[in-house]
Structures are given as C-alpha cells and as structure tokens.
Design goal:
Number of helices: 20
Strand content: 5-15%
Largest sheet: 7 strands, mixed
Radius of gyration: 23 Å
Bound molecules: flavin-adenine dinucleotide
Oligomer: single chain
Number of strands: 11
Helix content: 40-55%
Distance between the termini: 43 Å
Length: about 525
C-alpha cells in the first residue's frame, strides 16, 4: 500500500548545480584567456567565476528577473518624475560588474590583453544574467565614440570608467526611432543650435535601454546633417514614455523616450553622426558576440549537468549515444563561439583594425544567430523540467534572440560584411589570412578555405549575403579550433559543420569522440 510519504520520494532528479565555479569549470575559456594574452587576469576571473556560480548570485539573478522594473512617470502631486524602480537584486548584479571593471578595464588600464580580460569577465558575468550586461556594455562602448570630442571625454570618461557603483556613471544609447532602427539615416529627431555651443534636441526614440543611465549618446538631424550628441539623463526635457513589454531580458528596463528641447553637446563633427556612433556600435557588437557565446556556455553546463544525473531506460542520459551526440554538438558549438569571441577581443588590444572590423561583423552575425536554436536544444536536454521556469532554461531561450536583433539584425549584419568587402578592401584578406593559419591541419577545413578563395561574387550579392557570411564564420571558427582545441573537438566541428553533419544539433556524423568532448565541457 502507498503511504503519503512514498509519493514524495524524489528520485532521479539532478541535484542543484550551485555552487560551481563558472571560470574554473570552463576549460575552453581558461585556454582562450591565456592564448589571447589575458593570462595576467586569471585572479580576476577566478574571483568573478566563483561569485557567478554562487547561490547568492543565482538568488539575485532570479529575483531581479522576477521583480520586473516599474516606471513611475509622476509623483503623487502630479509632477513628472520619470523614475524607474528596480529591485535591489538588479543593483546587486550590476554593482558586481561595475566594481570588477567589466565596463572599463581597458580604458583605465590599457595594457596588452586588457580587452581580452574584460571580455572574459563579461562572458562569465553574462551567465548571471544578460539584462545587466546591457548598461555594462554600453558604458564600455561609449568611450571610443566619446574620445572623438576630447573635451567631453575629459569631463565624462573619469566617471564612466570609475569602478564604483555609487560614484561612477553609466552611458546608454538612443538611436532607434519608430520609423526605422537599421536605417538610422531616416532619423527625424532634430538638433537646433542653442547659440552657446550646445544644441536642443526634439523628437522621440522608440528604443532606449536602461533609461536610468547618467548620459546617452544619440543621433539627431543638425543643420549639417545627422550628428552624434551626448545628453544627460537628468535633463528635464528627457521623458520616459513607457517601458517595453519584452519577450526576454525582462529585468532590463527598455523604454520609449521623448526629447523636449533636451540640452545636448555634439560629439565629433556635424554630419558625421553615423561615423562617430559606429565606434560605439563596433564595441557593443563585440559584446553581443560575447553575450551569445556566454548563453551557449550556460546552456551546455545545464544540459550536461542534467544528463550526468538523470537516467532513462536504465542508463544515465549522458551515457546514451543519441544524447551524447546532442551534448557534444552543443559543446563544440559553444567552444567555437568562445574561441572566436576571445580571439576577436584580442584584436581590440592590438593595432589590427582590418581584421577587427571584419571579424566582428562576421562573427556577430553568426554566433548571435546560432544562440537561439542552441538554447532551445539545451532546454530540451532537460525534458519537461527544461520547460519549467525554475530551471532557468525558459529565460535562456527568451533572452537568446536579442543579440541577433540588436546592433545590426541578421540581414543588416550580413549586408555590412558584404559592404566591408568592397569599402574596406583590407578586411577580407586579413580575415582569410587568420583562417589560413590552420592550413594543413584538417582536410575538410582546407577544402572549405579553397572554396572560399575560389568563390566569385554572386550575381545577386545581397540575396546570398547570409550564406557567404556563414561560410566565412565557419572558416574562422574551424581554423581556431584546429589550431588550439583538442583533436576530438576540432574534428567534430569540422565533420559536423564543414563535412557530413545534419541540420539540427545532435547530428554529428559517426566517428566523433562525443564522450571526450562532453568530458571536456565541464570539469571540476
Ligand atoms: C530589447 C531591445 C533593446 C534595445 N535597446 C536599444 C537601445 O538601447 N538603443 C537603441 O538605439 N536601440 C535599441 N534597440 C533597437 C534595436 O537596435 C533595433 O530594434 C534594431 O536595430 C532593428 O531595428 P528595427 O527594429 O527598426 O527593425 P528594421 O530596421 O525595421 O528591420 C526589420 C528587419 O528588416 C531587416 N532589414 C533591415 N534592412 C534591410 C535590408 N536593407 N535588407 C534586408 N533586410 C533588412 C532587419 O535585419 C530586420 O530583420 C533595442 C531593441 C531591443 C529588442
């Protein structure tokens, strides 16, 4: 006879994964950090990695996601206040990132490898939550654009880079308007010279993430054409209309805003707004790539952990060949994304503009595109448990498409690569030279590189843009893995992506050492 207690036996459920060390458990990240010149940052990474995988961080992450931001437009007397209420856990998550210089390290301490160390820290902390990484990224990325105006940089850079949550400042970006985000040249916001060297901005912005920022970079039509401006968030003419009810990153307040004669200062020259703000965009694109790589990593950890503890049909899932194929496929995708992201981060440390610009656009397109199906497959590894909020997997899946939309949606990113092949003719050769470094290491990669070299311009270049960028991205990822990863990982990647692989995750061809790949995926 069943007793009531016997219905409550909990069998065959994976134990909690927390606490675990996000950095130490990630061999691919540790190796990439060292390889790309960031070995001196290992203590910072250990500290961030331990905290990121702690019960405390998990609790704050979950709480800030649960208690969503609320906009208060007016006080009880009817005065306009435009304040966003945020849960204390949001502040906890963001403060940890700021105090660890994830927004500023290379600007404060521009030693070789500083961008790589920051990238690795960003990667680790993104696994606590992607929402807070938005203001972290925008503040980091604002600096190169701000430096176009030395006076403004002298005034704001010390605050924007300070590793203090209370005394530092945060920067945001407001480009997108109702009628178009990709095509910013269609912006209608006006900038009228105020006669004292400043301008007054009037208009709206359809997306402005994190309106509590201290300063924003924006685009507006000045007499000399579309120009880049800086304005302060406390300006009385800056109105938050409403917060967006979004698919994911729900802890992050993204808003619609209006400018009512907002006082602003020009960055760079009038009419050069896109050229100025693109300096910011290139850096946020790097973070989109890092964020998507981190999302894959988090998914792999959850999937492998579950499969190592859950049995079905008399065996652990991790021992079942079909599941090994899925886990190994997810793991090689994640390792390829990590390797590419850290290699590209190194190009921000070096005088390597041709490779940097081209490789960022190519890889931002590809890795961000791969993140959502990767998250869906990782979720499925947990079966029904993965579909339930408490597992964190639904959040992973909801957040995953964002990086592909932001800072150049798929087509726009692919077309940007196409444009770069014409307008920046040194980019593609620099990119191919990096891919060629692995020549002779794997016949599938050699054949792929030959195909890329022989490719002639398609008759309808834009129609084929995604295909071209995909092939380029795979060439770089395969090249990095062939040179630096163990043979089981690079062989599986080349076989699955350049050879006889299938169309969904879990279709690596036979002969792949899946067990070894999964062993490498989480250590410790
Ligand atoms: C959560 C979130 C936060 C955001 N935060 C900010 C922020 O802080 N600041 C900010 O300025 N913006 C922000 N954005 C806006 C974001 O940058 C834009 O949504 C994005 O740039 C796309 O612009 P759009 O929405 O106007 O789409 P559109 O430009 O209308 O594009 C729609 C689709 O058409 C495609 N497309 C566009 N042009 C072409 C073409 N020539 N050929 C083929 N296809 C094309 C695009 O790839 C896309 O798939 C945010 C968006 C989200 C979802």
């Amino acid at each position: 006879m069943l007793t009531s207690a016997s219905t409550h036996d909990v069998l065959n459920q994976a134990p909690p994964i927390v606490p675990y060390d996000v950095f130490e458990a990630d061999v691919a990240l540790r190796e990439a950090l060292e390889r790309e010149g960031g070995a001196w940052g290992v203590d910072r990474l250990r500290d961030a990695g331990r905290l990121a995988g702690s019960a405390e961080a998990l609790e704050h992450s979950e709480r800030s996601e649960r208690n969503e931001p609320v906009l208060r437009t007016h006080d009880r007397y009817g005065n306009r206040i435009d304040e966003v209420e945020l849960d204390p856990s949001w502040h906890w998550c963001l403060r940890q990132a700021i105090e660890r210089e994830m927004h500023s390290l290379p600007w404060r301490d521009p030693q070789p490898g500083a961008h790589v160390v920051r990238a690795a820290l960003f990667f680790v902390w993104s696994q606590v939550g992607s929402g807070v990484m938005c203001p972290v990224s925008m503040t980091y990325a604002a600096i190169p654009a701000l430096r176009e105006s030395p006076e403004l940089a002298a005034e704001w850079e010390p605050r924007l880079t300070r590793p203090s949550y209370a005394e530092g400042a945060l920067a945001g970006m407001a480009m997108t308007e109702k009628q178009g985000g990709s095509d910013v040249r269609a912006n209608t916001t006006r900038a009228e010279p105020a006669g004292d060297g400043t301008y007054e901005l009037t208009g709206h912005k359809w997306f402005c993430s994190y309106p509590p920022c201290d300063v924003f970079l924006t685009l507006a039509q000045a007499p000399g054409g579309l120009s880049c401006f800086l304005f302060e968030g406390r300006d009385p003419g800056f109105r938050i209309q409403r917060l967006k009810d979004k698919l994911g990153t729900r802890s992050l307040p993204s808003s619609e805003v209006e400018f009512h004669a907002v006082r602003a200062r020009l960055i760079g020259d009038e009419g050069r707004g896109v050229a100025t703000i693109i300096r910011m965009v290139n850096h946020t694109r790097l973070d989109c790539l890092l964020g998507s790589a981190a999302s894959m990593r988090w998914g792999v950890v959850q999937a492998v952990h579950h499969a190592r503890h859950r049995s079905a049909f008399g065996k652990l899932l991790a021992e079942q060949p079909a599941m090994q194929n899925v886990l190994a496929d997810l793991a090689v995708e994640s390792e390829a994304a990590t390797a590419a992201a850290l290699r590209i981060a190194r190009s921000y440390d070096e005088d390597d503009a041709a490779f940097r610009r081209f490789a960022t656009a190519v890889t931002k397109y590809w890795v961000c595109k791969r993140a959502a199906p990767h998250a869906a497959e990782a979720l499925e590894c947990l079966g029904g448990n993965g579909y339930v909020e408490e597992s964190g997997m639904p959040r992973l899946l909801r957040d995953a498409p964002l990086n592909s939309i932001w800072e150049g949606s798929g087509n726009v990113a692919a077309l940007d690569v196409l444009r770069a092949t014409v307008k920046e003719p040194e980019g593609l050769p620099a990119f191919m030279a990096e891919c060629e470094l692995a020549r002779g290491g794997n016949p599938l990669l050699d054949a792929h590189l030959d195909r890329l070299r022989a490719a002639t311009a398609p008759s309808e270049p834009q129609f084929g843009a995604r295909r071209l960028v995909e092939e380029l991205a795979l060439g770089l990822q395969a090249s990095l893995l062939v040179r630096h990863a163990p043979a089981e990982v690079s062989d599986a990647f080349c076989a699955g992506r350049l050879g006889d692989g299938g169309r969904v995750y879990g279709t690596l061809p036979s002969g792949v050492d899946a067990a070894a790949i999964v062993r490498r995926a989480i250590t410790g």
